[in-house]
Write the structure tokens for this entry.
Amino acid sequence: MSTPLNVRQAQQGDRQAFIQLIRTFEANMYAFSRTMLSSDEDCADAIQETILLAYRSITTLKTRHPV
């Protein structure tokens, strides 16, 4: 499944599509958080907060590509 399709489906309430989005980007989120945080625990906390914020606001996401 493509990322734009997952975004659209997640915006429509599809939890599995949202989970797939997280799985697609989890390594990038960890790598980015690791550049700013020194412990794995802090990285995990930051990623958890990011995922929660993304879940709560996915319906307001604006994309540059038609989805």
Q: What stands out?
A: The chain has one domain: 3-58. The chain has a mean pLDDT of 92. Residues 3-58 form one domain.
